[in-house]
Amino acid sequence: MTNYHHDINWRGVDLNLLIAFSALMETRSVTKAANKLAIGQSAMSHNLSRLRSLLNDPLFERHGHQMLPTQTALEHASTVDTILALITNELLRPSVFVPADFCGTFKIGLTDYAELLFAPALYDAIHHQAPQCQLSFFNVDRHSYHTDFNQHRIDVVIGSMTDMGKDIEHQYLYTEDHVCLYDQQATGLNDQVSLEQYRLHPHALVSPDGKLTTQVDTQLQQQGFQRQVAVGSHNFLTIRHLLSGRDLVCVVSRLMAQLDIFNDQLTQCPPPVAIADFDIRLLWLHRNSNHPRNQWLRHIVANTVITHVNQLRSSS
């Protein structure tokens, strides 16, 4: 890290002084420089006085009707021009993100649900436009995502998060509902499940937080029922393996039930109890809202997810 000298009067450094210096170099006149910057002549004279004190040099001396630069002023002129150009072009002017030139890493936080559904489509879409990039998928859940944003410097998150803080912005992507998923032969169930069958058959549970109860159990209790939860796992793939060939019923999101990565021919049907739908959102940190790279990533991620969902639904 650079060690700045403690004897420099940083409080006296003012960007306006550099602008005033540049105007004086161009016009060689306090009056003309003041007019150019649309300030009063007394304000320009005050700026010149501050410049002289800061740089310990007269900088400009009057000769007739002109203010001629000293040798020190001439030596500093190119440096001042460079500083002002850098501020104008690199700091104040919005940068343009060119995905084809990007060689860095995009970090996307995904719940298990979102990663199974969208990781392949996101990889294809992003690498098509940014072929030199690296893509890192981070597993997150509704309890850890806020910490993960900062700890792993994640760019965006996809999930069913709620109660976002003021430092999180979000975009609605789509709404998901639920189905019952089961093996007809192993359970002896047909293509519809009654409430009584739902209550009596053992259940497998997708549980991101490890608990063996969900809002479904709360809703059943309100209706005077209780279900048998036989097994739970945070990993949907584990539950999907368990369903095949076993007397188990599982309530999962409709899109998850439609995944074609298995050839298990499980049956899905509407649940016999009312289960609340949930919204899937794209989230990002408020402080990164205006960053061109983040804006580009949010646009391509949102479009890819929405398109993929529509394709899955149209093929069902």
TrEMBL record:
Domain HTH lysR-type: 13-70
Signal peptide coordinates: none
Domain of life: Bacteria
Keyword annotations from UniProtKB, A to Z: DNA-binding, Transcription, Transcription regulation
Pfam families membership: HTH_1, LysR_substrate
Xref: InterPro entries: LysR-type_TF, LysR_HTH_N, LysR_subst-bd, WH-like_DNA-bd_sf, WH_DNA-bd_sf
Residue stretches in coiled coil: none
Gene3D superfamilies registered for this protein in UniProt: Periplasmic binding protein-like II, Winged helix-like DNA-binding domain superfamily/Winged helix DNA-binding domain
GO MF term set: DNA binding; DNA-binding transcription factor activity
Family of this protein: Belongs to the LysR transcriptional regulatory family.
PANTHER family with a match to the protein in the record: HTH-TYPE TRANSCRIPTIONAL REGULATOR LEUO-RELATED, TRANSCRIPTIONAL REGULATORY PROTEIN
Protein name, entry field: Nodulation protein D 2
Species of the source: Photobacterium aquimaris
Originating gene: nodD2_1
